[in-house]
Design brief:
This protein has 18 helices and 22 strands. By secondary structure, the chain is an alpha+beta fold. It binds flavin mononucleotide.
């Protein structure tokens, strides 16, 4: 059990859409964090409403005179956890206002997707290679499988009379701020006209939000190969802020990154490619997904636009930074729309204005043209062991992925397994390997590793530079006395270095908010972002991309751990500056943005696992 109090059994208010089934969802009670800091009480319509006082870390009012970059940096500083002061949050679980994890659009028709037969034999390793499976035709069955692997429920857990759902995509506190969308052509059993759909995970169905004019659809996708479609993601900040307060914006971005990873992997399982359309700005994403439709959200929590990505059935090397024409996007927005969003919490006991401020500040980013990967390693250079092999199926790994709530403090992994997991995190020069082919930018996230139990490898601190050209800048940024030694038997193309030998189990747990899972696994890590340079180069909006990239790294590690027969867990709760101190990082240029742990999981035998979609039958 983690060092933070872990109360996985607290019953919570039932999900409104689940009431009839007497199903309860379990609150995110595993890892508590934070305390409320500066609150003022103001009267609202007959009630009391708490508003977090809006100050920068230095105590200045965060106002419009700050540049977007300054707003972002101030947000990042004030949402750091310190040993003796956590980022501002309510400080207790306000169960009465717990948000519903199920967004639904009343009045939008629901197309139920046929549940795919289990047992697809596609080998797991094929998800990552450019010459993967033959592309599946676009149909209701393939769309169903796509969402099943990307965003669907994968299990229910039960403890006494409390039941809660888990999904293919992980989520900070299981709060699931991320909602998924698809913009599809006319498709057999789905609809005879193109449309915009919201994915409803609990029903495994698509809610038809808008009818698209076939002419508009054809023009919108004219530059893409036949049979392409778009997927989109939004975040409902309140879902995370309800528990985590100001730090919640970071978690929403992590979760979006994990979901981008599950979408890319789901596409790979169908032989499809997926790439983020970086240059489609937030306003256009809002218009495409209908998030800007005030009336549809009257009284309901708004969804913040995250991204749209293109899914193609064939190798496609056209300009990845392709924009969608403003004119056509406006025509999508002018379509006929259906449905009004449900209210997720009857009231919000507290507002966190800094989340709105950082959301506004991160609206715009400057994307470079496709970056140069020619000096990255090839698949052969980066993987020592034959990598195109393995007994696991893609499906068993994708649907079986789970967060470990506790690690056994004994399981050791082979060095080859460790190297292979890390190699998956480095884009290759030839095709860049999934999921890294989904994003256009070179890695900005590097790993500071705490190695505890890897056979034939000294325990200690290590670093993985995910961009080989960042070895030197990292060496300069980190503690001068570090060793920078190549571990024995490390594949030549893997930029992994031993920094310092020693037992760092207690240290790892300590900087991960005292959570034992960080010390009891085989290894844990902090994801060190090339923070300042990235914000200067790409603008404040790229703050979100850094967290997406961290989420992608985490998603690959989740799958790799599952494939290796062990467990893993994302760690959003860590003490920011103490992590920097461990690696001797004294400037703000590099910042840790996420933690992760991998090791031998301990099952919670008090819990019963139930199937995702036939709970009634299982009874
Ligand atoms: C961004 C992120 C941060 C997380 N942080 C923690 C953490 O600090 N401690 C922890 O025990 N679990 C953490 N988790 C794991 C979640 O609690 C877990 O994903 C969620 O309960 C759903 O379970 P599942 O991953 O098995 O689907 C985190 C997950 C994500 C995606």
């Amino acid at each position: 059990m983690g060092g933070c109090s872990c109360d996985t059994t607290t019953p919570v208010r039932r999900c409104r859409t689940q009431r009839r089934r007497r199903v309860r969802r379990l609150g995110p009670t595993k890892w508590g964090e934070g305390i409320r800091q500066t609150m003022v009480i103001v009267g609202t319509d007959g009630g009391i409403k708490k508003v977090c006082k809006d100050v920068s870390p230095q105590g200045h009012a965060a106002g419009s005179d700050l540049s977007p970059e300054e707003v972002v940096m101030a947000y990042h500083e004030r949402t750091k956890h310190h040993y003796h002061r956590s980022a501002a949050s309510l400080g207790y679980m306000d169960w009465a206002t717990q948000p519903d994890p199920c967004r639904r659009y009343a009045g939008a028709s629901l197309v139920r997707l046929p549940l795919p037969e289990a047992g697809r034999a596609l080998p797991y390793w094929q998800l990552y290679v450019a010459d993967g499976p033959a592309p599946a035709p676009l149909s209701i069955d393939s769309i169903s499988l796509f969402f099943r692997y990307a965003l669907s429920l994968t299990a229910w857990k039960r403890f006494h009379d409390t039941t809660w759902a888990l999904r293919a995509n992980p989520s900070s506190g299981n709060l699931h701020p991320t909602d998924g969308y698809a913009i599809l052509p006319a498709l057999g059993a789905i609809h005879d006209r193109p449309g915009v759909y919201h994915y409803a995970p609990q029903e495994h169905g698509l809610e038809r939000r808008a009818d698209l004019d076939p002419v508009v659809w054809a023009a919108l996708t004219a530059a893409f190969p036949e049979g392409s479609f778009l997927v989109g993601l939004s975040s409902i900040h309140w879902r995370e802020a309800w528990k985590y307060g100001e730090r919640a914006f970071r978690y929403c971005q992590h979760d979006a990154g994990h979901a981008l990873g599950t979408l890319r992997v789901a596409a790979a399982a169908l032989g499809w490619k997926l790439c983020l359309l970086d240059r489609v700005g937030d306003d256009a994403v809002s218009q495409l997904l209908g998030l800007d439709r005030e009336a549809d959200y009257a009284g309901a929590e708004r969804e913040h636009p995250e991204l749209v990505a293109l899914v193609v059935r064939e190798q496609w090397s056209s300009d990845r930074g392709l924009c969608l024409s403003k004119e056509l996007v406006s025509q999508v927005a002018a379509s006929r729309w259906y449905g009004t969003a449900n209210v997720l919490s009857s009231e919000h006991g507290v507002d966190w204005p800094v989340i709105d401020q950082v959301a506004v500040a991160t609206t715009n980013r400057r994307m470079a043209a496709d970056e140069d990967f020619s000096r990255f390693p090839s698949e052969e250079e980066i993987f020592a062991a034959p990598v195109r092999s393995g007994a696991c199926t893609a499906e068993s790994v994708i649907l079986g992925r789970r967060s470990a709530v506790s690690m056994d403090a004994s399981t050791a992994i082979a060095a080859a397994t460790f190297f292979r997991m890390l190699a998956r995190l480095v884009p290759t020069r030839d095709g860049r390997s999934a999921p890294w082919d989904a994003i256009a930018w070179r890695p900005r996230i590097h790993l500071g590793l705490f190695v505890h139990r890897v056979n034939d490898l000294s325990p200690g601190l290590y670093v993985l530079a995910r961009d080989p050209e960042k070895v030197e800048p990292l060496r300069k940024a980190m503690r001068g006395e570090f060793l920078w030694q190549r571990p024995p038997s490390c594949p030549p193309g893997l930029p992994l270095y031993l920094l310092k030998e020693g037992d760092c189990r207690a240290l790892a747990a300590s900087v991960s908010c005292g959570q034992d899972i960080a010390g009891d696994g085989a290894f844990s890590l902090g994801m060190i972002a090339d923070y300042k340079d990235t914000l200067v180069t790409h603008g404040a909006g790229f703050y979100r991309n850094l967290f997406w990239e961290a989420g992608l790294v985490g998603q690959v590690l989740y799958l790799e751990a599952e494939a290796a027969g062990i467990g893993s867990t994302g760690i959003g709760c860590y003490f920011d500056d103490p992590v920097h101190e461990v690696f001797g990082i004294s400037s703000r240029d590099w910042q840790s943005v996420y933690h992760f742990t991998v090791g031998g999981p301990v099952e919670d035998t008090r819990l019963t696992t139930l199937p995702a979609y036939n709970l009634e039958d299982a009874r």
